[in-house]
Amino acid sequence: MDKKVPESQTITSFYLIPEDRLPLPVYMVGQFLTFRLTTPGRPKPIIRTYSLSECPCHAEYYRITIKKEPSHQDSDNVSGSNYFHDVVEPGTRLQVAAPRGDFFLDPQKESPIVLLSGGVGLTPMISMLNAVADSGKKRPTWFIHGTRNGVHHAMCKHMRQVAAGNEDIKVHIRYSQPRPEDIEGREYDSVGHVDLDLLKALLPGTDMEFFLCGPPPFMNGLLKSLWEWGVPETRIRFELFGPATLLQEGTSVRRRKKETTFEEKAYEVKFSASGITAKWDPEYENLLEFAEDQGVFPDFSCRSGICHTCQYKISRGEVDYNFEPLDPPYPGQALLCCSRPRSNLVIDV
């Protein structure tokens, strides 16, 4: 780790450079890094993922931006944040996998986009915002961010500077509980939560792509609002903090099927616990997406073969992997987010 920079009272950016000084792997805007952390008091390393918060134009380093969680909440799900804030210092060596993730933006397009974030969910959105500004494209962009107040608001001046230097980029910050020292028009633009009324007031319509990232309550509200407004699922991309089970019923966005150029057998896939059997469709990228469109909703989180939330027992049959998982699943089990059937299957879900 090269340096750490406070972005607010609770959020810090960490700049990473390669130990061998060789060129870093190029990443897509919005992707994340995976860390294997050896933490005090734990017999095994923990795996944590953090979004890259800078655009690839800075090829000499990676930057991640992390919120420190209160110690009493430092369970298995958040212990990595305190490790970074309390243990990692300049010169600390970290074990990092190459960037990955299917939540990303093509900065070379010119179609209008809306970047919606809640809390520290702004990290991939800052990467996207910077990439749009760096591209030189005249791309209509709305960056809309919600947070509690200035204590938790990271990169405030940077957002304003980017918008001031690009007439096609508009930034709106909404605080839910502003402090007396938070100045409206400087730190924030309005009070409340990011909701449908705010979107209707700021946006000219729905003919644009929407990118969302934030905690489950933020996602629940905005996904439902966008659908109520008539935004098609095909124009909504999102990254969720936490497993999909934290989303309320009716807010699970399913992925689109992908075209395929090769022949693949229509294997029979049985979801034994759900009582559903269907013929595999090779247009699907993986078994998780296929299951969701059959009305079966396995748990998931990263959708990238890292977190093992979508690991389920295979009672019969075999799978192939689209890419090698960072950590292999247990024997007799499979990661549904990155696997496809190699035979007829019975999956215990």
From TrEMBL:
<keyword id="KW-0560">Oxidoreductase</keyword>
<dbReference type="InterPro" id="IPR050415">
    <property type="entry name" value="MRET"/>
</dbReference>
<dbReference type="InterPro" id="IPR001041">
    <property type="entry name" value="2Fe-2S_ferredoxin-type"/>
</dbReference>
<keyword id="KW-0285">Flavoprotein</keyword>
<dbReference type="InterPro" id="IPR001433">
    <property type="entry name" value="OxRdtase_FAD/NAD-bd"/>
</dbReference>
<dbReference type="InterPro" id="IPR017938">
    <property type="entry name" value="Riboflavin_synthase-like_b-brl"/>
</dbReference>
<protein>
    <recommendedName>
        <fullName>nitric oxide dioxygenase</fullName>
        <ecNumber>1.14.12.17</ecNumber>
    </recommendedName>
</protein>
<dbReference type="GO" id="GO:0008941">
    <property type="term" value="F:nitric oxide dioxygenase NAD(P)H activity"/>
</dbReference>
<keyword id="KW-0001">2Fe-2S</keyword>
<dbReference type="Pfam" id="PF00175">
    <property type="entry name" value="NAD_binding_1"/>
</dbReference>
<keyword id="KW-0521">NADP</keyword>
<keyword id="KW-0349">Heme</keyword>
<dbReference type="GO" id="GO:0046872">
    <property type="term" value="F:metal ion binding"/>
</dbReference>
<dbReference type="InterPro" id="IPR017927">
    <property type="entry name" value="FAD-bd_FR_type"/>
</dbReference>
<comment type="similarity">
    <text>In the C-terminal section; belongs to the flavoprotein pyridine nucleotide cytochrome reductase family.</text>
</comment>
<feature type="domain" description="FAD-binding FR-type">
    <location>
        <begin position="1"/>
        <end position="106"/>
    </location>
</feature>
<dbReference type="Pfam" id="PF00111">
    <property type="entry name" value="Fer2"/>
</dbReference>
<keyword id="KW-0520">NAD</keyword>
<dbReference type="GO" id="GO:0050660">
    <property type="term" value="F:flavin adenine dinucleotide binding"/>
</dbReference>
<keyword id="KW-0411">Iron-sulfur</keyword>
<dbReference type="InterPro" id="IPR039261">
    <property type="entry name" value="FNR_nucleotide-bd"/>
</dbReference>
<keyword id="KW-0274">FAD</keyword>
<dbReference type="GO" id="GO:0051537">
    <property type="term" value="F:2 iron, 2 sulfur cluster binding"/>
</dbReference>
<dbReference type="InterPro" id="IPR012675">
    <property type="entry name" value="Beta-grasp_dom_sf"/>
</dbReference>
<keyword id="KW-0408">Iron</keyword>
<feature type="domain" description="2Fe-2S ferredoxin-type">
    <location>
        <begin position="267"/>
        <end position="349"/>
    </location>
</feature>
<dbReference type="InterPro" id="IPR036010">
    <property type="entry name" value="2Fe-2S_ferredoxin-like_sf"/>
</dbReference>
<keyword id="KW-0479">Metal-binding</keyword>
